[in-house]
């Protein structure tokens, strides 16, 4: 069986290897591509490129990876001093995302990728989450993941994908404040939005945690499943129901 081709968005960052140091490189953590491969997909790394989105025609699914902050000008806010954005990624990924959504391609947004999904849907972000929730447990230290409880709206795509999972990892200092046209279907134990989706499309899911670093990367597996040519249907998972409101209130 031909493996579904999953585009994985990548960064351009200074990197070093062998005798080379601080060379601009296109990169993405191997955990993403490894999770796609383990789920039966063929990962293709996509560098930032906003010239066109024709590559979407060659993909069966799109994974928008985590990374630096989304530029606040994309959702009409001045930048917080602690916001570190990558305009090239914003431009390239929004170009891909717009085309993928128009084609009803299965899409998974991870961490920054979920935030970009919300911004593309007309939403907005909290630029520094500790100012909102009063703690830093979502990013406890540089390079160190946190862990917290999570719940999902019954009947949602997120609930169908995650099953009985009630804890996830965490590494972010921004979060979705307004999901725009998306539906919120997952929350951390402090009320922070952890999952968003679009029940009007075949498969559009955003998760705030990093499933590629979990032993059981269910959202990545679900993306590959949705992208399989022999499994395409209007709704491979149950449609989402509107969850009860539970806003995050600033402290």
What would you say this structure looks like, in words?
There is one protein chain. With 251 residues, this protein is α/β, with parallel strands linked by helices. It has a single domain, classed as Class I glutamine amidotransferase (GATase) domain (Rossmann fold, 3-Layer(aba) Sandwich), CATH 3.40.50. Helix content is 22%, strand content 26%. It contains 6 helices and 13 strands. It has helices at 30-38, 87-102, 112-120, 130-133, 157-162, 218-227, and strands at 5-9, 11-17, 20-27, 42-46, 61-64, 107-110, 124-126, 146-152, 167-170, 175-178, 183-188, 193-197, 204-207. A 9-stranded mixed beta sheet has the order 4-1-5-6-13-12-11-8-9, sandwiched between helices. Strand 2 and strand 3 (20-27) form a beta hairpin. The protein is globular. Residues 230-251 have low confidence and may be disordered. This is Putative glutamine amidotransferase. GO terms for molecular function: gamma-glutamyl-gamma-aminobutyrate hydrolase activity; transferase activity. One of its GO terms (cellular component) is cytosol. Residues 235-251 have a biased composition (Pro residues). Keywords: Glutamine amidotransferase, Transferase.
């Amino acid at each position: 069986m031909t493996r579904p081709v999953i585009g994985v968005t990548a960064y351009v960052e200074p990197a070093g290897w062998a005798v080379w140091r601080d060379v601009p490189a296109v990169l993405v953590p191997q955990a993403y591509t490894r999770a796609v491969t383990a789920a039966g997909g063929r990962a293709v790394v996509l560098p930032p490129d906003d010239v066109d989105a024709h590559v979407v025609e060659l993909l069966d699914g799109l994974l928008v990876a985590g990374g630096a902050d989304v530029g606040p000008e994309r959702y009409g806010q001045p930048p917080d001093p602690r916001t570190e954005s990558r305009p090239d990624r914003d431009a390239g990924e929004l170009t891909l995302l717009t085309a993928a959504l128009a084609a009803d391609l299965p899409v998974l947004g991870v961490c920054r990728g979920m935030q970009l999904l919300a911004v593309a849907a007309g939403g907005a972000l909290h630029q520094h989450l500790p100012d909102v929730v009063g703690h830093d447990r979502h990013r406890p230290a540089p390079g160190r993941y946190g862990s917290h409880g999570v719940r999902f709206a019954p009947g949602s795509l997120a609930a169908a994908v995650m099953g009985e999972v009630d804890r996830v990892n965490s590494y972010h200092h921004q979060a979705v404040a307004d999901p725009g046209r998306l539906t919120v279907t997952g929350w951390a134990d402090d009320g922070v939005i952890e999952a968003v989706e679009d029940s009007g499309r075949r498969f559009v899911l955003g998760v705030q945690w990093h499933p590629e670093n979990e032993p059981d990367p269910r959202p990545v597996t679900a993306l590959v499943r949705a992208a399989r040519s022999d499994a395409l249907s209007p709704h491979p998972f149950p449609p989402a129901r509107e969850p009860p409101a539970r806003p995050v209130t600033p402290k």
